[in-house]
TrEMBL record:
Its main location: cytoplasm. This is Ribosomal RNA small subunit methyltransferase G. It is found in: Cytoplasm. Belongs to the methyltransferase superfamily. RNA methyltransferase RsmG family. Coiled coil: none annotated. Specifically methylates the N7 position of a guanine in 16S rRNA. Its EC number is 2.1.1.-. InterPro entries: rRNA_ssu_MeTfrase_G (IPR003682), SAM-dependent_MTases_sf (IPR029063). Keywords: Cytoplasm, Methyltransferase, rRNA processing, S-adenosyl-L-methionine, Transferase. One of its GO terms (cellular component) is cytosol. S-adenosyl-L-methionine binds at G77, L82, A128, E129, R145. One of its GO terms (molecular function) is rRNA (guanine-N7-)-methyltransferase activity.
Length: 235
């Protein structure tokens, strides 16, 4: 695990600061909407807009320098739109599908998208396994923040992302433990070229785990709803 930490690259802090400064007002509008929405559907931890901005929105922005132009993105288990809605606010050139299985959250998300006047976002209410069945190879990038084990995420991502596409998983230190459990078996799902990026938010070290989709999965995906969590493919 220590070797993997040494191999990590750093997200340039000056680039991140530039993104924040350029989009602060729009992102604060989103933070206020998200804070109000928390009273109707539990979308994220804090309700205070400044806290949401400092702890959650800035976290999501760390991945923005890694995202190519003019791509289609799916955000799995988006909750309050983190990270996908944050990216859509900052980047009108990307098209983002927000995916969540909780109907109440999806309704609130749709309202926030309307209030923010975003034409590059669509909300989908579905489980990842069901959604993948009718949206195979559709996306250039799949992402998830605070959703599940890395191995489970890679399974969710695999059928959705086209060859040549990529994925991003937001993780803390536990991500390194989950990575060791996979024992380099990611290629079974078509993933290769792992890169790990480090950054800091509110004094806390965090990480982005990224892979490229280089081939089709050698195991059948998507599996039935709930199976990825109950029967890990890597064990």
């Amino acid at each position: 695990m220590e070797d993997l930490k040494v191999m990590t690259k750093e997200v340039a802090s000056d680039v991140l600061e530039g993104i924040i400064d350029a989009n602060r007002d729009k992102l604060m509008d989103y933070a206020k909407l998200l804070g109000l929405a928390n009273s109707r559907a539990r979308l994220t931890g804090p309700a205070d807009p400044k806290c949401i901005f400092d702890e959650h929105i800035v976290d999501c922005l760390a991945a923005l320098p890694l995202i190519p132009s003019n791509i289609r993105i799916v955000d799995i288990g988006t909750g309050g739109g983190l990270p996908g809605l944050v990216w859509a606010v900052c980047r009108s050139d990307v098209f983002v599908d927000l995916l969540d299985s909780v109907r109440k959250k999806c309704l609130v998300l749709e309202e926030m998208v309307r209030n923010l006047n975003l034409a590059n976002v669509v909300v989908h209410c579905s489980r990842a396994e069901e959604f993948a069945s009718s949206n195979k190879d559709l996306y250039d990038l799949a992402a998830a923040r605070a959703v599940s084990h890395l191995g489970v995420l890679l399974e969710y991502f695999s059928p959705l992302v086209r060859r040549g596409g990529s994925c991003i998983a937001f993780k803390g230190l536990k991500g390194f433990e989950e990575l060791e459990e996979l024992e380099g078996k990611e290629e079974k799902l078509g993933w290769s070229g792992l890169e790990i990026w480090s950054y800091e938010v509110a004094g806390k070290k965090l990480y982005l785990f990224t892979w490229k989709k280089v081939k089709d999965a050698r195991i059948s995906v998507p599996r039935r709803v709930g199976i990825p969590e109950r029967r890990p493919w890597w064990r």
